[in-house]
Amino acid sequence: MREQINVALKVAMKARESLKTSTLRLVNAAIKDRDIAARGNGGRDLVGDEEILEILSKMVKQRRESHGIYKEAGRDDLADREAEEIVIITEFLPKQMDDAEIKAACEAIVTEIKAEGLKDMGKIMGALKAKYAGQMDFGKASKIIRGLF
């Protein structure tokens, strides 16, 4: 995953795509920050693909929030930039599950771990994150699970 991002950055730099270049540099900076934090906390040198997916998902979530705020404030230029950055970052994420797929996955996990109610929410979310990291919006999943009980 790290190599894919670096190759895309080089291609964007050669093509003089300034937005893509700056966005991918931000992604690399976030990954390096996590590398440094990991080095200080456990001796590992580099974070793995799973943590990179987590970083990318977080970056997309932040940009979606910013996009909404900019739209409300009437700053369409900034909202458009956020939307373009979302497109660039999501190129590196696995295909996102739609609402029906998220609901089916939630129901399957609830059945699999024999959850009895909202008191098992932590177990359910942990199982979902382990199985579907980077593939679903866990905020939506949480709402769906609450609806099941």
What does this 3D model show about the protein?
76% of the residues lie in helices and 0% in strands. It has 149 residues and is mostly helical. The chain is globular, with a radius of gyration of 18 Å. It folds into 2 domains: 2-90, Uncharacterised protein YqeY/AIM41, N-terminal domain (Hypothetical Protein Yqey, Chain: A, domain1, Orthogonal Bundle); 99-148, Arc Repressor Mutant, subunit A. The longest helix is centred in the N-terminal third of the chain and has 25 residues, at 18-42. It has helices spanning 2-14, 18-42, 49-72, 76-90, 99-112, 121-131, 138-148. It is built from 7 helices and no strands.
Looking at this protein, list some descriptive labels.
Arc Repressor Mutant, subunit A, 2 domains, Hypothetical Protein Yqey, Chain: A, domain1, 149 residues, single chain
Topology:
Layout: H1 2-14, H2 18-42, H3 49-72, H4 76-90, H5 99-112, H6 121-131, H7 138-148
Please summarize what this structure is.
The chain has 149 residues and is mainly α. It contains 7 helices and no strands. The chain has 2 domains: 89 residues, Uncharacterised protein YqeY/AIM41, N-terminal domain (Hypothetical Protein Yqey, Chain: A, domain1, Orthogonal Bundle), CATH 1.10.1510.10; 50 residues, Arc Repressor Mutant, subunit A.
